[in-house]
Amino acid sequence: MTVESAGQDYLTRQVGALLEAIRKEGPVGEGRRSFRLAGHLAAEGGFHLGDILAATAQLLAVHAWNNGYLAAAELLTRRMRDFGESAELVQHLVRLETGCEQGWLPHEDREALIAYARRAERPDIEQRARAIEPLLPGLTGPERPDQMANES
């Protein structure tokens, strides 16, 4: 095992520990342990602190929302917004991953993602966003005009 692979294994374990802390703290926790672990992960893994804290707040907020704790979700969402540019990055990355998973994104979301990638000088994000099919206004699902024309 190389030093680099050992470091990657360590970071993978740290990410796993962070996700486990989020799960264990539950939807009504304030995320103290999760945020502490996120801070360690940022320091040791070379991640931007605001980015990892914003992502942690997002995960905690989603966990709270999914379990019906709307006040906790709102509090965590407000906390996430305190991270400014990092919160915007997290929102766009969630949108990107959702689009990649589904294979489509609403047209305006896709365009906003591409515009963000250009502003942030992130060609990796722009390239991935361009690979996602746009869902045109007025369509309610992943149907695309090119597919519908071929099917008729």
Write the layout of secondary structure elements.
Blueprint: H1 3-25, H2 32-45, H3 49-66, H4 70-81, H5 85-102, E1 104-106, H6 107-119, H7 123-130, E2 133-135, H8 145-151
Parallel strand pairs: 1-2
Helix pairs in contact: 1-2, 2-3, 3-4, 3-5, 5-6, 6-7
How does the overall form come out from the CA principal axes? Answer: globular
Distance between the termini: 56 Å
Structural class: mainly alpha
Secondary-structure element pattern, one letter each: HHHHHEHHEH
What topology, given as strand order, has the largest sheet?
1-2
Q: What's the average pLDDT?
A: 80
Low-confidence stretches: 144-152
Give the % helix: over 70%
Radius of gyration equals 18 Å
The count of β-strands is 2
Q: List the quaternary state of the chains.
A: single chain
Main sheet characteristics? 2 strands, parallel
Task: Determine the number of helices (DSSP H or I, runs of at least 4 residues).
Answer: 8
β-sheet strand percentage: under 5%
Account of the protein in words:
The chain has helices at residues 3-25, 32-45, 49-66, 70-81, 85-102, 107-119, 123-130, 145-151; strands at residues 104-106, 133-135. It is globular and about 40 Å long. It has a two-stranded parallel ribbon with strand order 1-2. Residues 144-152 have low confidence and may be disordered. It has eight helices and two strands, in the order H-H-H-H-H-E-H-H-E-H. By secondary structure, the protein is mainly alpha-helical. Helix 3 runs antiparallel to helix 4 (70-81).
